[in-house]
Amino acid sequence: MRSNAILLVEDNPDDIELTKRAFAKAKIQNELIIARDGQQAIDLLFRDDNVQPIRPVVTLLDLSLPKIGGLEVLSRIRKDNRTKHLPVVVLTSSNESADLFQSYDLGVNSYIRKPVEFNQFVEAVSTLQLYWIILNEPPPEAE
Questions:
Q1: Helix crossing, 118-128 with 13-25: angle to 10°?
Q2: Quick one: angle between helices 70-79 and 38-45, nearest 10?
Q3: What is the pLDDT of residues 59-76, one digit of tens each?
Q4: From edge to edge, which strands make up the β-sheet containing 32-35?
């Protein structure tokens, strides 16, 4: 079942705290579920232990992750009928054009480079909220 939660897949504790602060400043009230590595994100999205997997309204995905990298997480999301339509936004500090192209090749919905300055980051988060949480009409869930 789709929820109003946002899945943040991020291993850097400073970036997690920055995101929490930006969400608070932007008055985003959605529950923020944090996966600190790619394996944890996969486990949350594809649980098979009689626990309902999460279906976030949007996933914010860093690319540089331990255990399973962000591009592999994105690939697994897109290959599974249950999750292939979930909105995924890459939120990364990577300046590598290969990461940008590969993200789009794998079906990312949006690619955002993390702004270095806090107020710019808050503005980016507010824009994410406006589009992905308020305006975007997601497809119905797959059974």
A1: 70
A2: 20
A3: 999 999 999 999 999 999
A4: 32-35, 6-9, 58-61, 88-92, 110-113
Which of 126 and 43 is assigned the larger pLDDT?
43
Token pair of 21, please? 């602060």
Least Cα distance to 124 among 25, 46, 13, 17 occurs for: 25
Cα–Cα distance for residue pair 18/41, rounded to 1 Å: 19
Distance CA 96, CA 93 (A): 9
Query: What pTM value is reported for the model?
Result: 0.88
Taken in order 79, 95, 68, 28, the sign of the CA dihedral is negative
What is the Cα–Cα distance from 12 to 100, expressed in whole angstroms? Answer: 20
